[in-house]
Write a structure and sequence with these properties.
The structure holds 2 protein chains of 2 kinds.
Chain A lengths: L2 E4 L1 H5 L7 E6 L5 H14 L7 E5 L2 H12 L9 E4 H11 L1 H6 L13 E2 L2 H12 L16 H17 L4 H11 L6 H22 L1 E2 L1 H12 L3 H10 L2 E4 L7 H12 L3 E7 L12 H11 L2 E5 L6 H13 L14 E4 L5 H17 L7 E5 L4 H12 L5 E4 L9 H13 L9 H12 L3 H11 L21 H16 L4 H17 L15 H26 L6 H11 L18 E5 H7 L3 E6 L32 H21 L1 E8 L13 H10 L5 E2 L3
Parallel strand pairs in A: 1-9, 2-8, 2-9, 3-4, 3-7, 5-6, 7-8, 10-15, 10-16, 11-13, 11-14, 12-13, 14-15
Helix pairs in contact in A: 4-10, 6-9, 7-9, 7-10, 8-9, 12-13, 14-25, 14-26, 15-16, 17-18, 17-20, 17-21, 17-22, 18-19, 21-22, 24-25
Chain B lengths: L6 H7 L5 E6 L5 H14 L8 E5 L2 H17 L8 E4 H10 L2 H4 L6 E2 L2 H16 L2 H10 L11 H22 L4 H10 L3 H16 L2 E2 L1 H14 L1 H10 L2 E4 L7 H11 L5 E5 L15 H9 L2 E4 L1 E2 L4 H15 L12 E2 L16 E3 L2 H15 L11 E5 L5 H10 L9 H21 L6 H18 L3 H18 L3 H4 L16 H17 L7 H12 L3 H20 L5 H13 L10 H10 L12 E4 H4 L4 E6 L20 H11 L9 H24 L2 E10 L2 H6 L7 H10 L1
Parallel strand pairs in B: 1-7, 1-8, 2-3, 2-6, 4-5, 6-7, 9-10, 11-15, 12-13, 12-14, 14-15
The chains are: A alpha/beta, B alpha/beta.
């Protein structure tokens, strides 16, 4: 194994189909760009694009890579640039007959192909499985975690088991070592194990595969077969992997296998990565893999402006309370606003800063706001600030219910009105809102109209109605909605078709007509309109997928819409966390720290909010799961307080380092002394920063 | 000039580890002493700042100590990196927050406020009493004859039970009793409704994923006891624990501290038993500090530089006089003026008593005197004035009197009024935005919201307010039936100005309506966002915005567990929460109060200060140039005779004793119990008076009402002998 430090230009000149090397560097060193350039050169040199397999850490980065490919000035064939999970799914589909033939799937196949589902559908299915189990496990009464979060934690546990090749039977035993605080934990963990087993059986029987089952089946059927493994090696001339440090053990096994052959192999590794360790990433496994492969190592130097600050923060976080007071750093552009403030004052300061940046010509897409967790009041303040400038805020932080979006609610309201047989009439306020939006009338007028037309649970026929004089002008528009309802009630379209019809025949012509994309009078689509359309699309797609799924698992036709409605109100159909690039106009984006560190792009300006919150430290341990004890390297011993603290410190160190390195110009940090419910906040981060900066000029103490 | 520690301070600074009790009189400089001791540990003994934990009683004190230590260390080129100075609740909150996942709590779990807790207890009690058998047992338990009950009997009895349930909860959680066993004991002792209320409250609290303040203590002690790893981690970190205001410690706090210092016993407790003023109505007890003082090496800090000599003499006289009758009320620690002569100078007018014919006269007298003096500098400095009261209910009288005279008033009055304005406006505007049901009702909600704003801004008297309301209601009834006109949605037909409003008033109202109308387009937002939108449109000071924020947090908490709640349900819940509390401000985080406190002590002396009107309890830790102590005739507030003491209902006391003596089989008959409670109340109220007196730096102005008229009107209110004695000392 050899080491050398190369400039980016030198890496670019190394393009060869037989190159076998690992690019190592910190964030911002140019590893991904070097990979991309290497890929371009390979294709330009005539290598077939379907013989070069590229694994990217997440879909956003894969989308960015594909965008870059579009700009190539030479022709090429189909590309294989995707996440490891997408590749697994593709392989399962291609070789499904072999999977069926493996004999691992129970019963006869209900269909020639499997159904792949996402996280929302997985939660819906798990709920169907778990609900009847609840009576067998009275211990759930003592479970503090709300049912919705229980489902998420069970699926998380399952994911870790699959990624680390641990059997569901072992889950409870491993989790028990992670909890010894509560006497009811073992019984809860038995429930988790049982829920996973039953869910797994249920899905396999119906050939419905979520992400976990896809990996599990791939591992135990295709990958277990030597002939298949040989075929993979033969099918790939060059394998390129970005963010190797975030890869799961199975992906590492595939890399190791390909590395044994003559294929070209180019890997990129962030020295301080490992942000997804709690999501199955196996950093230790990467070390071993690279040792085994004995690749040439190329070090790329970091060019980020705050690299000393990143290193200092990282070591402070790692040392915890044993840290020595840090020496002051000169970090122009890194500003800590540490006045003792009420929470609203902090939000106002953030708004002022945003305005100042935008006034100075900074583009919206060059600013990100980062908080440990998303506070709705922060969202509101920033959104107000931007709205005053005709701008929108994009929030990429966890998941929100799609039903909380107005356009989605309007479609659902129309369907609930059109299907009295569901016995789920919409609330009057929702009907008022629907009339207001579809008819484009004043809210007060809409309420008056709703009181006339929807006195109880059915929208009334306009003809026999006695119309007040001041609402007469609305009769015709109201009648058109009523007519649609009558027609929709008479047809027996499934829910997704009904939603589609409501969108195409009522919502789009009335609310989107001014946005016709062609013609001289075209008005550019506003980002919230685009978001609305995306959300409605997600609703319709979700309904369609749920119908297919429900049919597949044998749910009664009449029950499907009720289950779906329950699911969207329970939050299982969550807003898509990531929106493909290029679809939306540029916007200021609000991220949680973890999300930004994992997926956010490098930008000139970061604004950190809530630096005094203790929630920058995040424990991975939950009542029903603990990813750390589910890792394959975890020895059979109790997960202690020290382990937890060490892992929290490690995670925070990696997160902070990544955040800081992703800023190319300035970071402004804000803190409040109080949480949203008035509790004092004494988190360490703001104090570290004040100590690090130390220069009074950089620490703004007043408002 | 170099700082020269006093003798007692030097003794403290000789501390080399282990236990140390510091008993410090008011104004002895114990905060300075804590700061000196901490910096000495860091700079001389090589202790890392992160190895020191300072626990204070209030957030303001914690912030003050932190800042002073930071400044002191920085001056020496050192850092306070990692130092923790916080309240015990903040310490527990942070500890639990970092371990929320493993405890099964959602990230960022929420703490319920006192009034929310009160409201949940009330709901729990009412749901129990829906059963006729339970109701009958309830009457019997309270010893109420159903034939003789009055209109308020039920609500009074409910209040007693609620109070008892609250006390029971506090004891159960602080001394870590098993909930079921404790409730079984309560049931066995004929406290069925209290046991049911406690159980129901706990079920509801757990179902909603909430914690109360007692839970913070309980869960922390449990965590430390059940997870040796957590305890070892903390013990390894905190090598020195310093506890401020140790006379206000609780059983739970003591347990936590004892566990933290178990390996090394490096514990410094600073307190003053003579300032223990919470023991009769909370779980704070000076006993822990008293016991500690008996076993640990002790330093007495008796020198005080805060007050002028006559004021210190009066405080000493109170101790001396009291101890002849109530030997347990005070420790015989005399306060002595500082040897370096730094006390404020004494004048013939340092202490001036005044006696008034009736309360109104007393209020007017004080307001006039403050108006005459507060804006005049004395020896080049403006005097800070504070009116210290025994109870909250008297605050508004003084606020109105001072505001009428144009004297600026700090919180307690002004901020409280601002809170009320915000709450009223938000609620009314939310109701306006509901727009359902009776379709014309929104107009009256708009008028009320407008009046809440106007009353606060213009300081209208009740009569003026009523007059304004009548005009506006008459106007909208006669002229503005059409909402288009009222909200100026249709500019083609603007409303004519009403004849009895002048142009400025009319424009004011129209402006308000325009702002309100702009909210209509936001009705699709969640109630949380709606409140924020209202705040953005109508409020502008941080305090007002924070109150609105506190409301939205309360709503968010509701919606977290009931995401399908409609706006009308949210409004109903908010209204119920508010009406359950007599003091609406209590809904909001105590942080607001403390921050506004701080804001008014930033720059003393250089300009006239707003007058502070606050209770003696909340004045603890503060000091003012001139202190007014009115209404000393009220022998419920300042009793000498135990018969005059205001004590909790016997049912509360019995619950208290039953649970506090849990497992010890200690029994007391109700009469003995009440006697003990009365005596404890008298003693605590005497200490409260001591605290009130010792807040004064330069001038003390005690007063009371006494006249033939007063005696005939309120024969039960007699000026108690200790007040008379103190007054005689100054004659």
């Amino acid at each position: 194994m050899s080491h050398s430090i190369l400039t980016f230009d030198a890496v670019r000149d190394l393009g060869s189909a037989h190159t076998r090397m690992v690019l190592v560097g910190d964030l911002g060193a140019g590893k991904s760009a070097a990979l991309r350039e290497h890929y371009r050169q390979l294709l330009r040199a005539g290598l077939r694009s379907d013989r070069v397999l590229v694994w990217i850490a997440n879909t956003a980065q894969a989308a960015a890579w594909k965008e870059a490919i579009k700009a190539y000035d030479f022709s090429h064939g189909a590309t294989l640039v995707m996440t490891f999970r997408s590749w697994v799914r593709q392989e399962l589909l291609t070789h499904w007959a072999d999977v069926e033939a493996s004999g691992l799937l129970p019963g006869p196949p209900p269909a020639p192909e499997p159904t792949f589902v996402g996280i929302s559908a997985a939660q819906q299915l798990l709920r169907m499985v778990v609900t009847p189990m609840r009576e067998q496990f009275p211990v759930l009464e003592d479970c503090r975690t709300p049912p919705m979060h229980q489902l998420i934690q069970i699926l998380d546990t399952y994911a870790r088991l699959v990624e680390h090749g641990i059997s569901p039977l072992e889950a409870a035993a491993r989790l028990d070592t992670g909890h010894h605080l509560s006497s009811h934990s073992p019984e809860l963990h038995r429930f988790v194990g049982e829920a996973i087993s039953q869910y797994r059986q249920f899905c396999l029987k119906h050939r419905v595969l979520d992400h976990n089952l896809q990996l599990e089946l791939f591992q135990h059927t295709l990958w277990a077969h030597p002939a298949y493994r040989t075929r993979v090696r033969e099918a790939v001339d060059v394998l390129m992997v970005d963010n190797l440090e975030e890869s799961i053990p199975l992906a590492q096994a595939v890399v190791a296998h390909c590395g044994e052959g003559p294929s070209g192999l180019v890997l990129a590794r962030d020295r301080n990565g490992g942000l997804r360790e709690y999501l199955g990433g196996d950093v230790d496994g990467v070390d071993q893999l690279l040792l085994d492969l004995n690749l040439e190592t190329r070090l790329l130097a970091t060019q980020a402006p705050f690299s000393s600050m990143a290193a200092a923060l990282s070591s402070l976080a790692l040392a915890g309370f044993e840290a020595e007071p840090p020496p002051a750093l000169a970090a122009p552009g890194f500003r800590v606003h540490s006045a003792r403030t009420l929470r609203v004052q902090m939000f106002e300061e953030v708004s002022h800063r945003l305005n100042a940046l935008l006034d100075n010509g900074v583009r919206q897409g060059e600013i990100v706001v980062i908080a440990p967790v998303v506070d709705p009041l922060l969202v509101w303040h920033v959104r107000q600030t931007l709205a005053a400038r005709g701008m929108d805020l994009r929030v990429l932080a966890g998941s929100n219910r799609v039903i909380d979006h107005r356009p989605v609610r309007i479609l659902v309201t129309l369907c609930r009105l059109a299907r009295p047989s569901w016995q789920a009439p919409p609330p009057s306020a929702d009907v008022g809102e629907m009339l207001e939006v579809l008819l484009g009338i004043h809210p007060l007028e809409a309420i008056r109209l709703q009181q006339v037309g929807y006195p109880e649970t059915v929208l009334l026929d306009p003809e026999p109605l006695k119309w007040p004089q001041n609402l007469l002008g609305l009769k015709e528009a109201y009648t058109s909605i009523y007519r649609w309802l009558v027609t929709a009630t008479d047809t027996h379209h499934p829910l997704d078709r009904l939603l589609e019809s409501a969108f195409a025949e009522l919502y789009a012509p009335r609310c989107l007509r001014q946005m016709a994309p062609d013609g001289p009078d075209a008005i550019p689509w506003r980002s919230d309109d685009v978001l609305g359309v995306l959300q409605m699309d997600q609703l319709i797609q979700g309904a369609r997928q749920f119908r297919h799924l429900a049919t597949r698992v044998g749910l009664n036709n009449d029950e499907i819409p009720k289950h779906f409605l329950r699911s969207i109100y329970a939050g299982e159909l969550a807003e898509r966390p990531l929106i493909p690039r290029g679809v939306l106009p540029e916007a200021v984006t609000l991220y949680t720290a973890a999300k930004y560190a994992e997926e956010g792009p490098c930008v000139p300006h970061q604004i950190w909010v809530d630096a005094s919150s203790p929630q920058w430290h995040k424990s991975d341990v939950r009542e029903l799961t603990n990813p750390r004890v589910l890792a394959r390297h975890w020895p059979p011993r109790v997960y202690t307080e020290d382990d937890d603290q060490r892992h929290q410190a490690d995670k925070l160190a990696r997160t902070l380092q990544t955040l800081v390195l992703k800023s190319t110009r300035a970071i402004d940090v804000y803190a409040s002394d109080y949480s949203s419910d008035g509790q004092e906040l004494h988190g360490d981060l703001s104090e570290w920063l004040v100590e690090l900066i130390a220069h009074e000029a950089e620490v703004s103490r007043g408002l | 000039m170099a700082f020269k520690p006093r003798k007692a301070q030097q003794e403290v600074l000789a501390y080399q580890g282990g236990e140390l009790a510091i008993s410090a009189v008011p104004g002895a400089g114990k905060t300075t002493c804590l700061v000196l001791l901490t910096t000495k540990l860091i700079l001389q003994d090589g202790v890392r700042p992160s190895q020191i934990l300072i626990l204070t009683y209030t957030r303001a004190a914690a912030a003050n100590i932190r800042e002073r230590i930071r400044t002191a260390l920085r001056a020496q080129g050192a850092s306070a990196h990692g130092l923790k100075a916080q309240t015990i609740h903040s310490f527990c909150h942070e500890l639990l927050m970092r371990r929320a996942g493993r405890l099964g709590f959602p990230d960022g779990f929420q703490i319920i406020s006192g009034s929310e807790q009160d409201n949940m207890l009330q709901s729990a009690l009412l749901s129990h009493l829906e059963n006729p058998d339970h109701l009958e047992a309830f009457w019997k338990g309270h010893g109420i004859d159903l034939n003789k009950r009055g209109p308020d009997t039920l609500s009074q009895a409910q209040e007693v039970s609620r109070k008892a349930a609250l006390r029971a909860l506090g004891i159960i959680k602080n001394i870590n009793l098993n909930l079921d066993e404790a409730c079984d004991t309560l049931e066995g002792a004929q406290f069925g409704e209290i046991a049911a209320t406690v159980r129901h409250y706990e079920e509801e609290r757990i179902a909603r994923g909430l914690l109360d303040y007692d839970d913070l203590i309980r869960l922390t002690t449990q965590l430390l006891e059940q997870d040796p790893g957590v305890l070892a981690h903390l013990q390894q970190r905190f090598r020195y624990v310093l506890e401020d205001e140790a006379q206000d410690s609780t059983q739970g706090q003591k347990r936590i501290i004892d566990q933290l210092v178990a390996p090394h016993h490096n514990l410094v407790r600073v307190g003053d038993s003579n300032q223990s003023i919470y023991a009769t109505f909370t779980l704070n007890s000076p006993e822990f500090f008293r016991q500690f003082c008996k076993t640990a090496p002790r330093v007495d800090m008796c020198e005080s530089s805060r007050s002028s000599a006559p004021i210190l003499s009066l405080a000493n006289e109170l101790i001396h006089y009291t101890n002849q009758t109530y030997a347990q009320a005070f420790e015989p620690n005399r306060v002595i003026p500082a040897e370096d002569g730094s006390n404020p100078p004494a004048h013939s007018s340092t202490i001036k008593w005044s006696v008034h014919a009736k309360k109104e006269k007393e209020v007017e007298f004080i307001a006039d005197a403050i108006k005459a003096g507060h804006a005049k500098p004395v020896e080049g400095r403006y005097m800070s004035h504070a009116i210290l009261l025994a109870q909250n209910y008297q605050v508004l009288d003084f606020v109105h009197a001072l505001e009428e005279r144009g004297v600026p008033v700090a919180e307690g009055g002004a901020q409280g009024t601002a809170s009320q304005m915000v709450v009223e406006m938000v609620l009314r505007l939310l109701k306006f935005l509901m727009l359902d049901g009776h379709h014309q009702r929104y107009r009256y909600d708009l008028v009320e919201a407008f009046l809440a704003q106007t009353r606060y801004r213009d300081g209208l008297y009740p009569e003026q307010l009523e007059q304004h309301r009548e005009r506006l209601v008459r106007f909208i009834q006669n002229n503005a039936y059409d909402w288009r006109q009222l909200l100026s949605v249709s500019p083609a037909a603007p409303l004519p100005p009403p004849p009895d409003l002048n142009e400025a008033q009319w424009e004011d109202f129209r402006q308000f309506l325009r702002q309100a109308a702009s909210l209509l387009g936001l009705r699709h937002l969640s109630p949380v966002d709606l409140i924020t939108a209202i705040a953005g449109a109508f409020f502008n000071t941080p305090y007002q915005l924070s109150v609105a924020q506190a409301m939205s947090v309360s709503v968010r908490r509701t919606l977290y567990h009931r995401p399908d709640f409609r706006l009308s349900q949210v409004v109903q819940e908010l209204e119920e929460n508010l009406s359950a509390s007599n003091f609406r401000e209590r809904l909001f985080p105590a942080a607001l109060e403390e921050i506004s406190k701080d804001a008014h002590t930033q720059d003393p002396g250089s300009s006239p200060q707003p007058v502070r009107i606050l209770t003696m309890h909340s004045a603890k830790g503060l000091e003012f140039d001139v202190v007014w102590l009115p209404s000393l005739h009220n022998n419920r507030d300042f009793p000498w005779s135990p018969h005059h003491a205001r004590v909790d209902d016997g049912r509360v006391l019995e619950v208290d004793l039953l649970l506090n003596s849990f497992g010890r089989r200690e029994t007391l008959d109700p009469a003995t119990l009440e006697t003990k409670a009365r005596q404890a109340q008298v003693e605590e109220r005497l200490r409260l008076l001591y605290v009130g007196i010792t807040r004064a730096r330069r001038f003390l102005r005690p007063s009371y009402c006494a006249s033939d008229w007063y005696a005939s009107k309120f024969p039960h209110l007699v000026v108690e002998p200790h007040i008379v004695h103190l007054q005689e000392q100054n004659l």
